[in-house]
Design goal:
Helix content: over 70%
Order of helices and strands: HHHHHHHHHHHHHH
Transmembrane segments: 15-37, 58-81, 87-104, 116-134, 140-159, 166-185, 191-210, 222-242, 248-269
Structural class: mainly alpha
Organism: Sutcliffiella cohnii
Radius of gyration: 18 Å
InterPro entries: VCA0040-like
Keywords: Membrane, Transmembrane, Transmembrane helix
Distance between the termini: 30 Å
Protein name: DUF368 domain-containing protein
Length: 278
């Protein structure tokens, strides 16, 4: 059993876990960069069916990698976002913008997109941009589930965040920020608060079941329209990630460097992981 597991997905899962800790960056986007997005959707959708055994070898290492990252890097990401916010955001901005040439080539956008596809692309940008206007300061971490309403709200947060995780361009962590439960999630991971983690986890599972099947249906039925939506979501997410410029020239120079690193890192990974198919 252990030999059959696709252990290369352990590293992929760790990368996806890191991105999901950053509000505004989607692990679905990184799955595209890694060339496993379509297989990820099929595996999650198929895992909750009679053919679940066929997807274990793919999903278990990926899940383990994400869990490791969420635990190991939650405090590190929080540190960089607190003390080196602009360069960190520009690194992720480079990653996001770097995926657009890959999506352009994979979708054969120049030859296959018509007016309706560009309209879909534009419409898909709008909700991601609007989400940013609802971003608010976290009210503080919930440490104890005191009643059913607290349980329900944390469960719902996990549900909505997981649905966003599978959509390139929409960040699950940004959804948690908007709902005011981002600090609750990261604090629970950092201190292994299992009642909170389990409640979030139950919501995540429900969200995965629903969203994976919807996305799979759309990819199979409306591939070009779905691709146009994904490109729009990715473009819209740049607005959420862009932190603005600093009055410090040094900070802006470092941010430019991190942006370039992020952009070309995506190009390198994309070449190593060809085969992103819709």
């Amino acid at each position: 059993m252990l030999k059959q597991l696709e252990w290369k997905n352990l590293f992929r899962g760790m990368l996806m876990g890191i991105t999901e800790l950053v509000p505004g960056v989607s692990s679905g986007t990184l799955a595209f960069i890694l060339g496993i997005y379509d297989r990820l959707i099929n595996a999650i959708s198929g895992f909750f069916s009679k053919e679940w055994k066929a997807h274990i070898s793919f999903l278990i290492p990926l899940g383990i990698g994400m869990v490791i990252s969420l635990k190991a890097f939650s405090s590190i990401i929080n540190y960089f976002l607190e003390y080196h916010y602009q360069p960190t955001q520009f690194l992720f901005l480079g990653l996001i913008i770097g995926i657009l040439p890959l999506l352009y080539r994979e979708s054969d956008m120049r030859n296959s997109f018509g007016g309706k596809h560009y309209l879909i692309l534009f419409i898909a940008m709008i909700p991601v941009i609007l989400l940013e206007f609802f971003r608010m300061e976290d009210a503080g971490a919930i440490l104890v589930i005191e009643n059913i309403s607290t349980f329900g709200y944390i469960f719902l947060s996990g549900w909505l965040a997981s649905m966003a995780m599978l959509l390139p361009g929409i960040s699950g962590s940004l959804v948690l920020v908007i709902l005011g439960t981002y600090a609750t999630a990261t604090t629970a991971l950092e201190h292994l608060n299992f009642p909170i983690i389990i409640t979030f986890g139950l919501g995540v599972v429900v969200g995965f079941i629903i969203s994976s099947k919807i996305i799979k249906f759309l990819l199979n039925t409306f591939p070009k329209g779905t691709f146009a939506s994904i490109i729009g979501l990715v473009i819209g997410s740049t607005y959420a990630v862009f932190p603005g410029l600093s009055s410090s020239m040094l900070t802006n120079i470092v941010s430019t460097i991190t942006f370039i690193v992020g952009f070309f890192l995506v190009q390198f990974i994309g070449k190593k992981n060809k085969g992103m198919q819709m």
